Amino acid sequence: DRIKHIRNFSIIAHIDHGKSTLADRIIQLCGGLTERELKEQVLDSMDIERERGITIKAQSVTLDYRAESGEIYQLNFIDTPGHVDFSYEVSRSLYACEGALLVVDAAQGVEAQSVANCYTAIAQNLEVLPVLNKIDLPQADPDRVAQEIEEIIGLDAVDACQVSAKTGLGMEALLERLVRDIPGPRGSAEAPLQALIVDSWFDNYLGVVSLVRIFDGTLKKGDKIRMKSTQRDWEATEVGIFTPKRRPTGILRAGEVGFVVAGIKDIHGAPVGDTITHAKTPDVERLPGFQKVKPQVYAGMFPVSADDYEAFRDALEKLALNDASLEYEPENSDALGFGFRVGFLGTLHMEIIQERLEREYDLDLLTTAPTVVYELAMDDGEIRYVANPSKLPDMANVDEMREPIVRASILVPQEFVGNVIAECEQRRGTQLDMQFLGSQIQLTYELPMSEVVMDFFDRLKSISRGYASLDYGFERFEAAKLVRLDVLINGDKVDALAAIIHRDHAHGRGRALVEKMKELIPRQMFDVAIQAAIGGQVVARSTVKALRKNVTAKCYGGDVTRKKKLLEKQKAGKKRMKQVGRVEIPQDAFLAVLKTN
Ligand code: GDP
Ligand code: MG
Known about the structure:
It is a peripheral membrane protein. GTP binds at residues 16-21, 133-136. Helix content is 26%, strand content 35%. The protein is an alpha+beta fold. An eight-stranded antiparallel beta sheet has the order 11-10-16-7-8-15-12-13. Strands 2-3-1-4-5-6 form a six-stranded mixed beta sheet, sandwiched between helices. Strands 22, 23, 24, 25, 26 and 27 form a six-stranded antiparallel beta sheet that branches. The N and C termini lie far apart (61 Å). Magnesium ion binds next to helix 1.
């Protein structure tokens, strides 16, 4: 009855509520790692994750826990990312579990992301245990937050665990609750193998490594396995668990979570959501799997130096091996040359990919403003999707242009609700619902995705002193009066600066854009005229006046170090500039349209 002593669980939490800290503490309590190894938060393994303090890829850990009763339990827990861009990873992780810990910062309260993820867990029939974290903080108010959990989520939280992941307070009690209240998995080690691929990633030495949950049967090293989706057979060359380091055990049984390596060289050979069985039991049913995620925003990415094009393509290829949600295709821009149009799950995903490309592959890239995908009903009945403003077809042949609409759920303390409503209205939002839940208000809006992709999240934070939280998902396409806003630099249309904008906002945004760009484009040896145009008609213009003196003339004769510093600064700034015609345009200017609200 080994399976009765397995507990598979995830941790659901809003960013910064302490999920990673709690995970580390659990690992430590179960003796998984030494104090020294714990110094760095172990689960956030990518450099960027550690620096930004966010979790991107789900990770799993297998631990032994000796309960007060003396019985040994195998705990498998799967860490999940907290940001809205990565919520699909959350539902995947939850699928492999029987329970979830809902971690809420007792000094902050419930946030929109946690609500959304918690509902996903409940919908998947998971046992959800509320955990109030950070009770060591003087401003912690566990009773108020417990009440909030009941009011907002509808989850009984009267005797929620109260812990401090930082000091370790309450952690033993939490683990006891976990083994008591979260049910063990079902399944039989003797049945034919049925395993779900929860995640796959590419390892330079091993090829594709897959995180799997065994629902039935036993998977051993050396077994001939079959991928249900491709019907291809492979030999399982390594099988084991994460502790969190990868540890070969040679065997995984029903109910367990671990990894399998089978000499697969392409991530599409072991797609996430696929079912693995043995080659000798080909009739085993496929598990439901997951919805395929589609990119929501697209941007052009161009190497600053044309010589880097090949290196850039190789880097994208490598990154895509690890990240099945990343899509790209070659793009040729008149202004920026050869590059790629890359699809992302959201703007955070985009920032992270850009950062990884620059850091891990040492590339200097220029990124255009992200756009959403538009649906075009052509007059010949064809439906087209366009995610590049400069690739819009002749509008005379377009019957209707439709934009993606999201359903957004916003949680905000009462005192800021007026600000948030005003912001949503300004962004063409339609209010669907407003509910008072404890000290917070839950607003439900339909908003054009393009408005959310812009700086909406940052704006929400700044108009609510950081308290508002947001969750959203695509709903449908809806007809809208949209136009293309073109930008001309010294009379030349710059394709990479074009944007698709609602007609009622186009003039205002055009004016704001040329003003913003005037601030961002450095002065050059000649006047630079910036114009915004709609359908060939100029709606706004501004001019960057010519530079008269040599920049270094500002430095006094002998001060060499200052002069040097200034030149270095100029050089660093130049890295992310692109010569468009005779004019040097910095990266910020390409993103200026995002900041014109
Ligand atoms: P995550 O984004 O949910 O993974 O959150 P982290 O585990 O990275 O924690 C976010 C911040 O909260 C970090 O600075 C932690 O040190 C801090 N933190 C986490 N748990 C506690 C706690 O119980 N008490 C206090 N005072 N701080 C905590
Ligand atoms: Mg974390």
